[in-house]
Each structure stands twice: as structure tokens, then as C-alpha cells.
Specification:
flat; 413 residues; mainly alpha
Length: 413
């Protein structure tokens, strides 16, 4: 059995052990050129610096791999086959809905069979489109899986195939770049990669959730074809889904600038900042329904946590200032008073005799107008207060002398 090493440096591995042994006296003494302190630039200190630089470089390469895996993963959260449990529930609902629509069409065509050829054409179209919809429902998961894998392969080729692509250029610059030995440059590129990783994780979450939702919606959307082949809803659904699948290709806009950034880690970091803005814009435009809300929340979070103008410029480029438009609130319907209803019907009768009646504009009754004003009072009050504050700020900006100084001279009669 070998003797147990009782030295205090026994548990250390790598370049730290000779440094420890030299300082504690258990190993050969460190000469003036072997220490890491003082004015020496010896081997142990250089080894320590090289070891730390290697660890940071490994961290940067790990972050690059994670960013690629998050932006365009080969596997998505959506079901890959039609026999997946979560997809089977929507498939059952969509198929039964399509069959129910077909039965309704058959009943209507049977009751109006006296119309002849038009009803026969409608019955044939409904039957054919129902069969096509049922087949399409079962094929959607496989098609989406193939498109997602193709997108992942194309994204990897576009950003990591050779030294002229973004991530491959960064990895090469970490090894042989002009500032590859500069710790500050390595820290800058690592910080930029960490920020890019955060945006990539946000893209991964929103994109995969969106693909999952739209794949599960497929049977319900395709069932609408059973009525006669109206493709409007299917086209909108397909555009939303394809936008989610191909969203990572928005980063192709920075590919032409990779050649100009090769050889310098700091310039690579600038490209990564541009990629952050593109990823945020990708969420803004590519994620249906909730994209502007999510991008606006990220912009508000960044602007509330930092006062750096560069960070503000990046998030504003990714999430522009917009005005949101909502549906008007549900309001009570408007009905005519008995006198106005009689007046309108009288006009119809007179028009039948060739007499034109002068139309009169309608207005709300006094009680209805009061109720409407009371319902809209809070919103009108907020708008009025905002306009008052804007006018006061504009008046103060146009007349700065009103805040101080001597009062203006008054003229005597």
C-alpha cells in the first residue's frame, strides 16, 4: 500500500498544487521567476492565469452551445405523433366536430334536394373536404416535427457551419483573436453571451409554448373545412404556426456583418448585442397574440433596472413604443322609441307609393344619454386630467421665465 500523503497540498490538483507546495515549503522553493506575486512572471503564475482564461473560454463555448440549442432546438414540446395523449384529446374532438358538420350538411341537402345540382355539388364538396380534414388532422404533428428538425439543421448550418458564421467566428476568436489573451475582452464577450442566453431562453419558452398551442388547435381549425372548404381560418392558423417555426431565421440579418467582426472579441460582442435586439423583435412580431405584451414587459424590466443608455437603446429597438387597441366595451343596444319606429315604417310605406320621406337623425333620449355619460365618466375624467397635465407641461416649456426672475413690466395708461 502506498504511503499516505499528509502534506497540506495533497488534495489540490492542477497548477495550484506546485504554487501551494512552493509557498508551504513541502516542495521545491519557488524562485524569483516562479512565483505569481511580486515582479516575477514565472510559470506558476502564468499557469494560473492560463487556467482561469481556459475556464472562462470553456464557459463561453458552453454558453454558445446552449444558445444554439435554445434558439432552434431539434425537439419541441409539441406532440410528434398523432397517438400522443394530449393530441388525441383534440383529435377526437376535431374529428367528431367535422363529422357533425357533415351530417348537418347532408340533412340540409336532403331537405332542399328539389334545388338539384347546387345541393349535389355542396354535398360532394362537404364530403371531400371532411375526408381531407380528417387526414390532415392526423398528419399535422409529423409535418410540424419535420419542419422543426429542418429549421434546427438549417439554423446550425447558418450560424455554426464554418468560420464565416457567427458562433463559429466567436469560438475561433476566443482561440486566435487579436484580443484572445486579454481578460477584459474575454469577460466582455462572456457577459454578452450571458445576456444573449437570457433572451434565447425567453425565445425558447414562448416559441415552444406557441407551437404546442397551435398544433393542439389544428383539429379544431381543420374541422371548419367540413362545411364546404372555406380556407380562411386554415390560412391564418398556418401563417401563425409557420411564423413560430421559422422565427429564428430573423437572426440571418446579422450574418453579413460577421466577416467585418472576425478577429476581435469586442466587435463580436457588438454583434451579440444586435442579436439581442433581433431576438426581442422576433418575440414582438413572431409570437401571436402575446408577443407585444411579452416584449413590452422585457423592455419595462430592463429600463426599470438600469439607466445605461445602450441597454435602453437595445430594448427599444427590439420592442418599439406602440399604442394598444382594445375592443369597445359591451354597451346596451340602441332601440327606437315607438314614435321613431312608426316614423321609419311610415317612410317605407310612402316609398312604396313613390313618395320620399325626409329622414331625420336620431338621438338618445334624456335618460339614456344620462346613463351613457355616467358609464363613460371615469375614462373621460382620466383623459381630461392627462390633457390638462400635457397642456401645463407645454406651457411651462414655452414660457421658462414664469418659473423665476423679475415680473414683466406693466404699461401705464
Amino acid at each position: 500500500m502506498p504511503d499516505k500523503d499528509d502534506s497540506p497540498c495533497a488534495l489540490l490538483r492542477g497548477p495550484a498544487r506546485p504554487y501551494c507546495e512552493g509557498r508551504t515549503g513541502t516542495g521545491p522553493p519557488l524562485g524569483p521567476g516562479d512565483g505569481s506575486g511580486g515582479d516575477g512572471s514565472g510559470k506558476s503564475g502564468g499557469a494560473l492565469t492560463e487556467g482561469a482564461s481556459a475556464h472562462v473560454t470553456d464557459l463561453a463555448n458552453y454558453l454558445i452551445r446552449k444558445i444554439k440549442g435554445l434558439l432552434a432546438p431539434a425537439d419541441s414540446w409539441a406532440p410528434e405523433t398523432a397517438d400522443s395523449w394530449i393530441y388525441q384529446q383534440f383529435l377526437w374532438l376535431g374529428q367528431h366536430l367535422a363529422v357533425a358538420i357533415l351530417i348537418c350538411v347532408i340533412v340540409v341537402c336532403a331537405l332542399t334536394a328539389w334545388q338539384g345540382a347546387p345541393r349535389l355539388r355542396q354535398l360532394g364538396a362537404s364530403t371531400g373536404w371532411t375526408l381531407a380534414a380528417v387526414v390532415g388532422m392526423a398528419a399535422v404533428p409529423g409535418v410540424v416535427m419535420l419542419l422543426n428538425q429542418a429549421t434546427s439543421s438549417a439554423f446550425t448550418t447558418m450560424f455554426h457551419s464554418n468560420e464565416s458564421t457567427l458562433f463559429a467566428a466567436i469560438e475561433q476568436d476566443l482561440k486566435t483573436g487579436a484580443d484572445s489573451g486579454n481578460p477584459l475582452a474575454i469577460l466582455i464577450i462572456t457577459a454578452a453571451l450571458v445576456v444573449a442566453l437570457a433572451f434565447a431562453a425567453l425565445v425558447f419558452m414562448t416559441r415552444n409554448l406557441g407551437i404546442l398551442a397551435f398544433v393542439c388547435m389544428a383539429p379544431l381549425v381543420l374541422a371548419s373545412l367540413a362545411r364546404g372548404g372555406d380556407m380562411t381560418a386554415v390560412k391564418v392558423w398556418a401563417m401563425r404556426l409557420l411564423g413560430l417555426i421559422f422565427a429564428p431565421f430573423a437572426l440571418i440579418l446579422i450574418s453579413p456583418f460577421v466577416e467585418f467582426a472576425k478577429g476581435a472579441l469586442v466587435v463580436d460582442a457588438v454583434l451579440l448585442v444586435a442579436a439581442d435586439a433581433l431576438m426581442l423583435r422576433m418575440i414582438f412580431h413572431g409570437i401571436p397574440y402575446f408577443g407585444p405584451k411579452i416584449a413590452g414587459a422585457v423592455r419595462g424590466y430592463v429600463e426599470g433596472r438600469t439607466a445605461h443608455p445602450l441597454a435602453h437603446a437595445v430594448v427599444r429597438a427590439g420592442s418599439p413604443t406602440v399604442y394598444e387597441q382594445q375592443n369597445t366595451p359591451r354597451v346596451p343596444r340602441t332601440v327606437d322609441t315607438p314614435g321613431r319606429a312608426v316614423h321609419n315604417d311610415r317612410g317605407v310605406l310612402l316609398a312604396a307609393y313613390g313618395i320620399t320621406q325626409r329622414k331625420r337623425a336620431g338621438q338618445l333620449t334624456t335618460q339614456s344619454a344620462i346613463k351613457k355619460v355616467e358609464a363613460e365618466a371615469p375614462r373621460n375624467q382620466q383623459l381630461l386630467e392627462a390633457r390638462r397635465q400635457a397642456r401645463a407641461a407645454a406651457a411651462q416649456a414655452n414660457n421658462p421665465s414664469s418659473t423665476g426672475g423679475a415680473p414683466p413690466p406693466t404699461s401705464t395708461p
